[in-house]
Amino acid sequence: MPLTRAPNTAKGDSAIQPSGSPAGHAKNRKRIFMHDAFRAGITLKGIDGILEVIGGALLWFVKPRSMDRMVRWLLQHELSRDPHDFIATHALHAAGHLTGEGKVFASIYLAAHGLVKIGLVAALWRDKLWAYPLAMGVFSVFDAYQLYRFTQTHSLALIALTIVDVTIILLTWREYRAQKLTRRQ
Length: 185
Prior knowledge:
Blueprint: E1 3-7, E2 14-18, H1 22-61, H2 64-81, H3 86-97, H4 100-125, H5 131-153, H6 156-184
Antiparallel strand pairs: 1-2
């Protein structure tokens, strides 16, 4: 009888268990793949949250003039090759406009956004059942804001990010249903 990984309900870890029929084996492989995709997705969310907290702290502590110089230094090679590079010119423009209230708002927003993601991801990794619907709700609010920002900026990066986020929300929904079913059994 072939062996396959099956989620362990106690800790969300995996255990080796015998599989049944070939159809059951294929279903088990799909479930394992979806579980692994969910874990990868929330891990990326957690890393993104850590980077947002770091970015928020940098914005808070680095002076606007120093930030402008640092961004220019980081982008000088790219701009020397293509002075009209879309990303580089927008990054320079954004760095030049981060002063006063805009800087404070951006730093607090990034840090808070990142801390919320980190907290939710930590709870999801520990399979806390309450975290699944909360994460779906919070990530949906973040996506709604991204779509609003898209109407202002027309940034394709926001659309791509929103598509990834919606995929993670759908994986979270699927994992939530699987966790509830497993706990009932």
